[in-house]
Amino acid sequence: MDERYETLDLRRDGGLLWLVLNRPHALNALNRTLIDELHAVLDMLHDDQSIRVVILRGAGRAFCAGLDLKEANAGTSKMSVAQGLRDQRRIAELAIKIHRAPQPFVAAVHGPASGGGFALALASDIRIAGESARMNAAFIRIGLSACDVGVSYFLPRIVGSSVASEFLLTGDFIDAPRALATGLASRVVPDAELDRAAEAMARNILRNSPLGVRLTKECLRYSVDAPTLEAAIAMEDRNQILTTQTNDVHEGIAAFLEKREPKYEDA
Length: 267
Hints:
Strand order of the largest sheet: 1-2-3-4-6-9
Strand content: 5-15%
Largest sheet: 6 strands, mixed
Structural class: alpha/beta
Number of helices: 11
Distance between the termini: 24 Å
């Protein structure tokens, strides 16, 4: 990819995009530039469906330490309520865009994932944790509410309301074994194997048809909030009939019968 970013490292490998938060000296804390550049990439992903899976990770020894409080404190003395709300929404919309992106996001979490960094991991579709991963809703530890940047939406849906209440009300760190036990992470691997495990997960997604993957992410997103079983099944039925009208489903069936890997064309 030709774009040059100050706080991001983007590496394209076919249909896979490595999206690396690249402020290692600040534990990849979210400053204004990083927030703006993440918005730019997420907007690009909405329109570029040749990118089919995204691996989100941090450079250095952390995933993301949350909001850059040094920068935030430098600009809060004269900030109005209206401006504060605009800045707050700007950060929160990152979680919304990840959640709504057509591409599945695999968060490869190592070291601290706190506050806004925790929110980015939660907004991702799959979380793989390195053994050093430590996640928490840091906001409550500095006098704020723990419910921020979509955390109060995602966390109870992932781990249940009781465990979510524990994590949000205490602000305690969730280490890798606890993350695995509660379903917050789908697997835990040694830090040295984290990239390999994340890429293997991404490749397992990429082997499936592009439309099937996009519709599966969309259906999961809607079904989590579906008011009834019937509503969820209606979405599933729609997706199955849509996919049966594609060339890819015929290729998928032929490959299965011929015991070979399918060659999907997203058509």
